[in-house]
Design a protein that fits this description.
The protein is an alpha/beta fold. It is built from seven helices and six strands. It folds into two domains: 30 residues; 158 residues, Rossmann fold.
Length: 192
């Protein structure tokens, strides 16, 4: 009788383990990717894409994502987070066939929609000092007010612009020395 009770217990434990594994697999299969996009059309979004591949972070890259693409037919977010890489590039804007004003309009509309969907909005600036200037600063100033979290290469904030724009807001800023060091802060920002 004692053997039968242990056999039933072992069977129940095995069934419970199978159920837990099945649920975890189903959850992983249903996990939404993040949306990687550019604000300013610099090449840095491609660099972050490579970090996501290396870090096994599910993503979709759309450098020209629009507000209407953030939600599905059920009006729920299609993505677990919006990761916007900010850096202005006249060459990138030209290649995309848009100007600074059009990019600002697209970006702000997308960020407004992400906020209305209560998405986690991670703003990244990884181009360092080389990716600063009037063009980039316009995109930085437009994007930062929507940030849930900010990750940046510290050389890109020698003038304290990020702290100035975010003054009085409770937005965590993580600074790293190199782009390659952004993976762990990004994983943390995404709750991974």
């Amino acid at each position: 009788m004692l053997v039968q009770r242990h056999a039933r217990s072992a069977c129940l434990v095995a069934m419970l383990a199978i159920l837990v594994i099945a649920c975890a697999s189903a959850f992983a299969a249903d996990a939404k990717p993040i949306l990687l996009t550019s604000i300013g059309q610099s090449a840095e979004a491609s660099m972050i894409k490579q970090l996501c591949v290396r870090g096994k972070i599910p993503f979709e890259l759309n450098a020209l994502a629009k507000a209407g693409e953030l939600a599905g037919g059920d009006k729920q977010p299609k993505y677990s987070a919006l990761v916007a890489i900010v850096g202005g590039s006249a060459k990138g804007l030209g290649a995309a066939g848009i100007n600074k004003e059009q990019e600002l309009e697209r970006s702000v509309a997308m960020l407004e929609k992400a906020r209305s969907l209560q998405m986690n909005i991670v703003i990244m600036h990884v181009g360092g000092l080389e990716r600063r200037g009037d063009l980039s600063d316009a995109f930085i100033r437009a994007a930062l007010p929507y940030a849930s979290q900010v990750i940046l290469v510290e050389a890109g904030d020698q003038d304290g612009l990020f702290e100035q724009v975010l003054a009085g807001k409770r937005v965590p800023i993580t600074k790293v020395t190199r782009i390659s060091e952004t993976l762990e802060p990004l994983r943390t920002a995404l709750g991974l």
